[in-house]
Amino acid sequence: MKGKGKSNNTSSQKYRHRLNLNSSSSDDLGSIQDDYDDSYNDDVDSRLIHNNSSNSINSNNSNNSSNNGNSNHTSNNNRKPYKYEDISGKNKPRWDRFMVWLRSTLYFMKHVAIHTVNNNRRNKLSYFLGFSACFLVVFVVSLCVSIISNTPVVFLNLSEVSVGEMDMVLSSNSGSSAQTSLNYTLASSLLQDDSSDTYHSPRILASSVTVVSGICGYNDPNNLGWKYGVQPDGTKMDCIPNCFTDVCLSAPANFGDLYVIDTKREDRMGLGRAWTMPSVPYGQVYLQSDLASSIHVAKGDSVYIELNVQSMISNLFWNANLTMFMVNGTYPPIILTMKVADTFSSGGGKFGKDESTAIIIEYDQFLPFIYTQLNPLYPQSSFSYINSSNLYDYADNIVVNLPPSRLEPYINSNQDTILQNLIKFSSKILYKLGFNEISSQLPVMKELSKNRYVALFLGLILNVIIFILLFLSILLIYSLLMIDVETRTFEMGVMRMIGTTRNGIIQLMLCKAFSYSLPSWVFGLLFAQLFGVVVSKWFASITGVPIPPRLTTEGVLLATLLGMIIPIAASIFPIKNALGKNLHDSLDSKHSKTMAVQISIERSEDNSFSTSVAVIGLILAVFGFGIYYIFPLSLLSFNLTLLLNMFFLLLISMLLGLVLLALNVEHLLERLIVFAFLFWEKKAIPAIVRKNLVAHKLRNRKTAIMYAVSLAFIIFVNVSYSTQQASLNYQVLQRSGSYLRVNGRANFSPSDAQGLENFVRGLGDSVESFSWISSSFPTFAGVSWSPVVISTVGHIYWDTNHVYAISPNYFETGLSQFLKVGDVSSDPDYTLDPLNLGLSQQMYSTKSSNGLLIGALYQSWFDAQVDANILFKTTIPASYATRTAIPGSPNITTSLAHPIAMIKSAPGLGFSEFPSVTNQDAAISIPSAVAFAIRGGAPIDSVRNMMTASLLIKARDGDTSNVRSQLETYISTMTASASLFDYDKEIAPNKTASDIIQYFFSFTTVIAMVISFFSLMSSMFTNIYEQTKEIGVLRAIGIPKSWMVRIYIYESFVLVFSSSLLGVFIGSLVGWTMILQRVLFTQLPIPFIFPWVLLIVIFICSVIFSFISAFGPIRKVLNQQVVVIMRLVS
Asked: Where is this region: Disordered (predicted)?
C-alpha cells in the first residue's frame, strides 16, 4: 500500500505540474503519452467508475480496478447485471447469445439516438448548420453533376443549328459527274428488319429561280404555252429555250434552294424539332422569309419557280426518253406555277442556319404536280412514264437519324466515344445498303468536331468546378464536426467520467453525423430532382434541345457518397480529437479553451514512420510517373481526353498549392489589414483583434482555406467564362476577318465586283474602309482549283499553300487584334506602322513584287528567311492552260518568290507558327497573283479580268446596323448569288450557349459563397463561445459592449477580407495561366480581363458576411450578466 501511495503522489505531482502549465496560459500537455501518465489515468478512470457504483461496460477498466487492489468493491459484482452485459456466456446457445447481443445493441443505440436528439434540440443552431451543409452538398452535387453530364447538349445545339438535325446523310457513290439518284423504296425495305434503323426519310435538293408571277408579261399563270414557247396551235416559238426568261425579265426574282421533303417521315425521325408547320398543301410551297421579302411576295401570292432538272431528277428524264430535248447536254428547266402557302423565318432544324432562300414542297405531291407543269411538246409516252413513276425511287439523299432518343449518344464529353457510337451505327446502315454503292456523311458529328477543343476545355473547367465544390463541401462538413466536438468538450468529459467507453464516444459522434446526413440526403435528392425538372424545361425552352429531367445515376451516387460516407470519414479527426483529451482537461470549466501558446512533446520512437512524409513522397512519385510517362503517351497517341485530364490534375495541384503557399503569408496580410483599416480606432481594439487572430489561428485556418479556395474558384470561373465566350466568338471573327463581309457563292465577275464596290462607296461616311480578297489561286482566273506548292530552292522541304490575292488596305480593314507578325522585310520605299497594318500595302511596292506573306511555321521548318528566295510551283489543268509542255498534261511552272514577312496569325487567313498546322494560307498582291497566273499559263491577261471572292467592310462605330440593312437590300437585287456575313447574326447560337454557361457559372459562384459563409458562421460562433471567460473578464474590467461587438466584427472582417484577397490573387493567377494555354491551343488572341466589378462585390460581401457572422453570437453573449458569462461552460 505504501508503494502504491508513493506512486500516486508522484503522479499527482506531475498532474499538478500539468495543471499549473495550463493555468499559466501555456499549451495543453495532455497529449504527453508516457507510461506513467497512462497508468495514472487508468487508475482515476477505475476509481471514478466504482465510486458511481456501476459496472463498467469496458472490461479493461474493471480489470485495472481489480489489479490495483480495490477489493473493497467486490460486493458490487453480486448485483444483478444488466441484460446486455451477459453476452459472452459460452454455455449459452449461439442463437441466444446473438439475441442478447442484438437486444443490448438496440438498447444502446436507442439511448444514443435519444441523446443525439436531445443534444440537437439544445443546440439548434449547430444542427441547422450541419443539416444545411449536408443538404447543400447533396443538392448541389447531384444537380450539378446531372447538369454537367448534359453540357455537351450545348455544343450539339450549336452543331444542329449550323447543319440541321441530321445524323447521317446518304448519297450515291457513282463516281461520275452525272447526277445519280437513290432508290429509297429499296433502301427502306432493306432497313426494315431492325426497328432502330427505320428512322429515315428521302430528300431532293435542287437549285431554282423564284419569280413573281404578277409582273410577268403574260397574266395567265396557268397557261403553259408561253412558258415553254408553244403557240396555241402547237407550233414552236422562236424564243425557245429562253421564252420564260424573256417574258419575265423585269419581274423581281431571286435564286432559291428547293427542298422536297416528306414531313411525316421527318417528324417521326425527329428531324426539325422546332418545325411547327404542317405538310405543304398540293400545288403550294413554303418560302423562307428572306427570299419572300427579296422578291416582295407574301402568303397567298403566286410565284413561278424555274427548276434546274439537271440537278435533281435527270435520271427520271433519262428513263422517260427526253434526251432529245437537251440543249448543250442539259435538260431545259421546268417552270412551276405555285401558290405561297406561308412563309417561315427559321428552318427549325431541317437545314442549317446559312440557308436563307429555302423553298419547301411536299415529297409525295411533287411528281404529280410536275406532271401538270411539263412542256407540252414532250411526247405522250414520256408523260405516261413520268405519271406512272414513283418519286421515292429517285431520291437525291436519304437522311438517317439515330433512334429515339437520338440525343443520348451525343451527351458525352468525350467526342471519341460519340464518334465510335456513330461509326457503329453508320457502318450497320452501310453494310445493309451496300457500302460500295453509297457514300455517307455525318453532318452533326463533323460540326461537333469543329468545337472539339472548346468542348474539351469546357469539360476541363467543369471538372475543376466539381472538384472545388466537393473540396469545399468536405472541408465544411469536417469543420462542423470538429467544432461540434470542441464545443462539447465538457459534455464528453462528463460522459467519460460516468463510464462511457471509447466505442461509445465513437458511436455518439457517428450518430451525430448521421442525424443530419440522413435527413439532408433525403431532402437534398428530393429538392434536386424537383429543381432538375425546372432546369430541364428551362434548358429546353432556350436551346430547343430536350434533356432528361431525372437526376443521373452518377449524380445520385456521388451525392450519396458525399452525403452519407463523407460525414463518416470527416468524423475521424474529430473523434481522434475527442478521445485525445485527458479527462481533467475535458472537465476543466474554469479556464478558457483558447490557447495562444502550444507545446508538443513527441517520443523519438514514435517518429520511426512519418505519415506526412510518406504521403508527400507517394504524391510526388505518382506525379513524376504521370509527367514522365502518361503525358508523353497522350501526346504521341493524340489522346486529347487523357491530355486534358492531365491538365486538370496539374491545374488542381497548382490551385491547392497556391492556397497552401498563401496561408504562410496570411497572418502578415491580416496584420497589414488591421493596420490599414483600424488605424483610426482606439489602440486597445486593434491590439485585441490581433491577439484574437493569433489565438484562433488554427480554427480560422479552415475558414481561411475555404474562403481562399472559394474566391479563387469564383475568379477562375469568371475568367473561364469570359475565355469560353471569347473562344467561341473569336473563332467566328478570325475566320471572317471583319464584322461585315459579302461572300459570293461563286466568284464575283469583274462587273459584279465593280457594281458592289460602287454601292459601298455610295454609302459615304458610314463605311470607314473596305477591301477585296480573291478565291484561292488559281480559281480567280476561272480555273478549277489546283495546289500551289512552296518549297526550298533545293526541293528538300515543301508544303501545299492556299494563296489569296488581297487589296492594299486589307489589314487596315480587317480586325487588327488578329494580326501577329514575326520577321518583316525592310523596304526603303515604305515604312510600316507600329501595328504592321500597312503590311498589305507594302506588298505593292517595287521591292516587294513577287513577294509573299507566309506562315511563321516555315521559318523553323524550311529555315525560310525574309528576302531569301523560295520556290513557287503552280499547276494549271490542261483543259484550262493556254499552253502546255506536253499536250494533254497540266502545265507545271516553278517560279522564284521571296517572303515579305512571317505571319503568326491574320484576320480571315490561316497562318500559324506551330508544326501541327500545315497546308496554311499565303497572301500576295493582286498584280503579283495575276503575273504568277499568266506565267503558269492560266487564261487571264489583266487584273481587270480577275474574279474576286469576298468584300470585307469596316463600318464606322454606330453605323453597322444601317450598313447591314442597306447591304442586304442591295444583295437581294444582284444578279450574282451572294450572301452577307453578319457577326451579330452569326454568333446568335453562340450567345445562347454562352448564356447557359454563364447561368451555370453564376449558380456555382453563389453556392461557393454560401458554403464559405456557413463555415464563417460556425467558426465565429465557436470562437466567441470558447472565449466567454475572456469576454467576461473584459466586461468586468470595464470594456463596453460596443467595443466587444466591434472587436469580433473586425476579427471576422479581417479574416474574410484577407482570405478574399488571397483567393482573388490565386484565382487570377490560375485563370491567366489557363488563358495562356488556351491561346496555344486555339491560336486566338484571347485577352485576360480582370473582374474588377467582381472584386468590388467581394469587398461588399466581406463586410456584410463579417457583420452577420459575428454580430448575432456576440450580442447573445453580451446580453447576459457578467457573472453569467463568466460561468458559461465551454
From this structure: 1-86
**Same domain? 233 vs 86:** no
pTM recorded for the entire structure: 0.64
Say whether both 415 and 313 belong to one domain.
yes
- The terminus-to-terminus CA distance of the chain in angstroms comes to 39
Whether 454 shows a pLDDT value over 80: the answer reads no
User: Do 256 and 208 touch, CB atoms closer than 8 A?
Assistant: yes
Provide the grid cell at 875. Answer: 499547276
Same domain, yes or no: 291 and 366: yes
328 by DSSP, 3-state: which?
Answer: coil
- Structural domain containing residue 80: 29-118
Has residue 368 been placed in a domain?
A: yes
Q: Burial level of 1090, CB count in 10 A (0-12/13-18/19+)? A: middle
How do strand 253-261 and strand 200-212 relate by DSSP bridges?
antiparallel
Task: Specify whether 415 is located in the same domain as 336.
Answer: yes
- Report H helices in 976-1040: 983-986, 988-1026, 1028-1036
- Whole-number Cα distances in Å, 671 to 478, 676, 1027: 28, 9, 21
Q: Within a domain: residue 11?
A: no
**Which triple of cell numbers denotes residue 367?**
411528281
Number of domains in the chain: 3
| CA gap 948, 770 in Å, rounded | 14
Residues forming a β-bridge with 288: 344
Look-up of cell digits 457577326:
983
d(CA 842, CA 810): 11
Taking every pair of Cα atoms in the chain, the longest distance, rounded to a whole number of angstroms, is: 146
**Single-letter amino acid, residue 704:** A
Q: Are residues 197 and 264 in the same domain?
A: yes
Q: Cβ(112)–Cβ(505) under 8 Å?
A: no
Angle at 789 between CA 785 and CA 790, to 5 degrees: 145
Q: Do 198 and 317 fall within a single domain?
A: yes
CA 1112 to chain centroid, in Å, comes to 40
Q: What is the pLDDT of residue 718?
A: 77
In a domain, 750, yes or no: yes
In angstroms, the CA 303 to CA 221 distance is 9
Residue 1023 lies in a domain: no
How far is the C-alpha of 553 from the C-alpha of 539, rounded, in Å? Answer: 20
Per residue in 782-806, pLDDT (tens digit) is 787 778 899 998 888 889 999 999 9
Q: What is the pLDDT of residues 518-532, one digit of tens each?
A: 888 889 899 999 988
Q: Taking Cα atoms as reference points, which of 744, 852, 848 lies closest to residue 803?
A: 852
DSSP string, 802-849: EEEEE-TTHHHHS-GGG-EEEEE--BTTB---TT-TTHHHHTTSSTTT
Q: Looking up cell 427520271, which residue turns up?
A: 316
